[in-house]
Amino acid sequence: MAVTTVESAVPSTVRTDELNRLLRAVDAAAGGASRAVEVAGDPGAGKTLLLTAAAHRARTGGLTVLRGRCAEPERDVAFRPFIQALMSWHAQRGPGAPVPAEAAALIKALATGPAEAESADFTRRCHYYTELRRLIGACLVGAPGGMLLVLDDCHWADSCSAELIDMLVRWPVEGGLALLVAHRPRQAPVELRAALRHGVEQGTTDAVELPALSLEQSAELLCAPPTAPGVARLHEQSGGNPLYLTTLAAERTDHTQDIFTRGGFGARLLAETSHLDDLTRTVANAAAVLGDTFDVDSVAEVAGLDRDRACAVLGELRRRDLIRPASEPGRLTYRHPLLRRCLYATMDACWRAGAHRRALHRLSGIGASATELAPHIDRSGSATEASDLRVLASAARTALHQGRPADAARWLSVALRVQRTTPCGPADEHVGPELWRSVVQSLAAAGDDEGVVVLAREILAGRSLAHRGGATERVPAVALLSAVLAALGRDEEAHALIAAELGSEPALDPGSVALLTVQQQVVKVLAGQVPVRADAEALVRRTAGADPMTAAGALALRGMCALLSGDTCAAESALYAASQALDALDNGSQADEQESVYLLVLSWSEALMGWYGPACGHGDRALTAVRERGDAHLLPPLLDTLAYVHYQAGDMADAVNTAQEGRAVARAAGRADHVGLSDAITAAAWAQLGRVSAVRPPRPVGGQPLTAPRTPLNALLLAESYLAAGDGAAALALLLPRREAWRVSEPVAVLAARGYELLAAAGVQSGVDADSIQEWADHAAEAAAAVALPEQHGHALLARGHALLARGLAEGAAQCYREALDLFGGASPSGARAKELARAADRTTGGRPEQALAELTLREREVAELAGEGRKSREIAEALRVSPRTVDAHLTRIYSKLGVNSRAELARIVALSR
Which of 65, 101, 494, 525 has minimal Cβ neighbours within 10 Å of its Cβ? Predict the structure, then answer.
């Protein structure tokens, strides 16, 4: 996330509690009392900003504010921060204004410093500092509103300044002086820390330690709510340090190294290293090369020093608080990873590459893991060795096992580059197809499309696949990579891969050309597009002499395109031929990548035709193979296909389970279209199971488009879920928001009758006029006649029944519903709806009670007859020798089947049937 900078003339800080504690000392000074405050915090904790905010408030309140700052180069200059602060008083009074006499006297005394004799003699020294204290008290006369003396970065304070602070803390001056002393506790001299601690114990000093920011404070600093994406992670990575937090946030906006080498953030981080001598900087750089943690011996070898010398320099870095002990005994770490990265980015590139190779040899010698060695191979420049391949391949496999596909892809890419620069040898086998396929599949499962694009280039440029004429391994690799890219929404890159291969020299053999030509159309399907029918027809002709697998794939594509264009006769012929061909290839072994894709195309087409048995068989066969190989890119469309098949076949539990799994893998892969379809199937299936509230889709409001991915099939399924919930208005708003056009694009021809029927059903529930419902019923009849599929004819009959019902012709409507039920069967959701509509129409006419009772089981008929006689549940239970609970369960099912709500209505139906 980006850092939002709010320009303000008033300094502010998110550390309000700490600021209030400082302001209490300011208020005391304004009232004539003196108070000291110690402000302690790590580098970047916000000490200076806190002091600035306090100084602004003090100045606004009428106090005289003096500021001084210690610096490392000036730590041998006596009283430097005090003199600087007093000189700032002169600057505040304006040009030409004289320095107050009291301040001039104090500056003179400070600049003169204690004489050598006084420095050696304790009594004289005490007299000197007492005189300084008196002069400071005299300065308060020139500050009638009180004085705030701010001393920053006192960890670099000279010994004289530390003694004077000790004097002011032990014996506060009279007249209203607020003394703020800020330092880094890990670097401050012992004398200063002891003096401030004594002041705290004495009660003259308040100790304000700056802890890590809370999540809420970090969010406030970034001008974002705590729940905003990335805020919690930035807070965790920064450890609540304001400087690190803003640097990390800026890095998310600018991914280059300029933020560390030229930006203001990097300058602040590197300021502490600007005074390092060459030897100390070399050791610091060697430690930065080694990684997050390091030991003395490794630093010595990488820096080219003996151990004792390296140890002494590391001690100096610890005194500067640049490095600290790590959690693991015997190891060290930089104060924060950002500091290490800044040093790493600014060191000489040639020296850095050599240092990485030295680090690699050192770590290899002490048995470091491949994961620890791989970064050094990656950054050691062109000085690669054949043995690096084994290390990189091992690191890639480890990353895969640990669920880090991006790292696995990184190490594999490095290995493929190393392979191109080293002679052929046995090490090449470490980076073969088995490894790169696993990495590609893991990237696809994580939805890392950019990672697949980058890795695909490295794979095809690898030594084993670089020769374009060798199609044995290269063409299947191109087919697989293009399928993965298309499934991840990168269809342009997928088409580019195939086009480059087809146009390669030397020319490919006819079989490879046929496979890639079919793959061009498969890529469109996987990307959610529909191939042009003419292209699919030409594809069948071009693959007439190809191998049976490729020819079957062409037939499946031809059938799909014909079906989606409404030519069900041609679709039936092509799909039957494809099914026969693919079934003939099923020898009991696992389907390969291409066969799985063709089975997917065939299964989805069969589902749209209403052939749910074959669709389920082919889909399951493909799914088994895909799971075995880990082809994550094919899981979302396969699972959605099978979930839809289960739903249409009436297997609602399987539909929900499969759709939920499909949603999970689709979401991980970043496929919003498949997430939307999974949600629609889940909502429709739960509605059929009577649990409408389990997955309640968003209700369209006011005709405004929903933001969720929407397709014609999604809309039909969601409309069915609304109708099952009795919310016809929502279904109508979804399909026809303004009564003039579809909310989504009109369904393809094979689903058009179903769409118009759902419109008519929603119209009946919503009280739409009969003429509109009749118009939709007429469209449904025309659409069903065009495709000549039994299922669509059933929807046309349902639509006709809706039109009749809207005109009050319940008996004719019931007859249409019963005819539709005969076509659908009772298990499918459309069949269940037809059965319920027929019952409702029968109840409206008040007839056919014997037909209603005929739907009951024998036991249910017995319970119904006894209940119709007026017997209670306990009496029925005794007569049938069952429990009263069982009788109640039977009655619940009877009420549902007969569409009644009371025993009185049940008794009437039983009486009419006799």
Answer: 101
d(CA 268, CA 541): 69
Rounded CA-CA distance 440/446 in Å is 10
Contacts for 781 with CB less than 8 Å, ≥ 6 apart: 753, 796, 799, 800
Rounded average pLDDT over 232-247:
91
* 876 phi and psi angles, rounded to 5 deg: -65, -40
DSSP per-residue string spanning 407-425: HHHHHHHHHHHHHHHS---
Q: How far is CA 266 from CA 246, 251, 261, 342, in A?
A: 11, 11, 6, 6
How far, in Å, CA of 52 to CA of 69, rounded? 12
Alpha helices (H) along 548-634:
548-564, 568-584, 593-609, 612-629
Order of strands across the sheet that contains 323-325: 293-294, 332-334, 323-325
CA distance linking residue 498 with residue 545, whole number of Å:
21
- Both structure tokens of 185: 């506790």
Q: What is the DSSP string of 487-536?
A: HTT-HHHHHHHHHHHHT-SSPPPHHHHHHHHHHHHHHHHHTT----HHHH
The rounded mean pLDDT for the chain is 87
In this structure, is the dihedral angle defined by the CA atoms of residues 673, 677, 679 and 680, taken in order, positive or negative?
Answer: positive
Q: Which of 212, 285, 220, 271 has its CA nearest to residue 244?
A: 212
Smallest CA-to-CA distance from 760 within 791, 785, 735 is with 735
pLDDT digits (tens, 9 = 90+) for 384-421: 787 899 999 999 999 999 999 999 999 999 999 888 88
**pTM (two decimals):** 0.75
d(CA 818, CA 800): 12
Tokens of 224: 């974002």
Given a contact cutoff of 8 angstroms between Cβ atoms, the answer to whether 73 and 275 are in contact is yes
| Residues 744 and 779: beta-carbon distance below 8 Å | no
- The tokens for 489 are 């929404």
Backbone angles phi, psi at 64, to 5 degrees: -85, 125
Query: Phi and psi dihedrals of 142, rounded to 5?
Result: -80, 0
Q: Which of 823, 824, 804, 820 is nearest to 812 (CA)?
A: 804
Q: In this predicted model, what pLDDT tens digit does every residue of 624-666 receive, in sequence order?
A: 999 999 999 999 999 999 999 999 999 999 999 999 999 999 9
Q: What is the CA radius of gyration of the chain?
A: 40
**What are the tokens at 567?**
């030519």
Answer for the pair 785, 752: CB distance below 8 angstroms, yes or no: no
Assess contact for 718 and 683: CB atoms under 8 A: yes
Beta bridge partners of 334: 323
The angle formed by the CA atoms of residues 154, 160 and 161, to the nearest 5 degrees, is 30
Average pLDDT value for residue range 558-574: 93
Instruction: Supply 734's token pair.
Output: 């979804």
Q: Which residues pair with 706 in a beta bridge?
A: none
| Amino acid occupying residue 781 | A
HSE (side-chain half, CA atoms, 13 Å) at 237: 17
Contacts of 87 (CB under 8 A, 6+ apart): 107
State the burial class of residue 51 (Cβ atoms within 10 Å of its Cβ: 0-12, 13-18, 19+): buried
DSSP 2: P
Residue 782: which residues within 8 A CB-CB, separation 6 or more? Answer: none
Among left, alpha and beta (phi > 0; psi -120 to 50; other), residue 276 is beta
DSSP bridge partners of 511: none
Kindly tell me the number of DSSP H helices and DSSP E strands found in the chain: 46, 8
- Choice between 18 and 814, residue whose per-residue pLDDT is larger: 18
Q: Which of 566-570, 744-748, 797-801, 829-833 has the lowest mean pLDDT?
A: 744-748
For 677-720, write each residue's pLDDT tens digit: 999 999 999 988 877 655 555 555 544 444 433 467 888 999 99
Candidates 558, 634, 570; CA nearest to 602 is: 558
DSSP letters for 9-70? SS---S-HHHHHHHHHHHHHHHTT--EEEEEE--TTSSHHHHHHHHHHHHHHTT-EEEEEE-
pLDDT on residue 57: 93
Residue type, 229: P
